[in-house]
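In response to reviewer comment 3 from the previous cycle, which asked for concrete evidence that the modeling workflow produces usable outputs, we include below a single protein chain processed end to end. The sequence was submitted unchanged, and the resulting structure tokens are shown without manual editing.
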Amino acid sequence: MGDVRRELSNPPGVHPPQAHYSHVARAGQTLYISGQLAMDASGAVVGVGDARAQARQCYANLTAILAHYGGKVGHLVKTTTYITHWAYRPLVAAARDELFPAPPYPANTLVVVQGLAEPQFLVEIEGIAVLD
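The workflow returned the following structure tokens.
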């Protein structure tokens, strides 16, 4: 087998990570996208107290990262969604339905966790995408 192109990067359009990690690990045509929080490109928190607004921002970040690589949300094959309270499930599902109104849907795992990187974050969504 030939060499697979590998890249670790922080593409434009999303706020650079504050910790020591990359937003994207690319191996060939597969993108492993780190969990996205409700932060806009300037680093401002979006939707404080609003899980649906936070999920929308998480998806906007995923979309911006995919666009940098010439992809779109349809290239997502797997997402993992983290929420800090089970009551946020329908709100996050509503935001997801805006992005994926009809099949095919990417595979998804939903996890309820005690907390995320900082207390104001209610939702985090990571993804795996396969580009054409």
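Strands lie at 6-9, 24-27, 30-36, 76-83, 107-112, 123-130. We consider this sufficient to address the reviewer's concern, and the full set will be provided in the supplementary archive.
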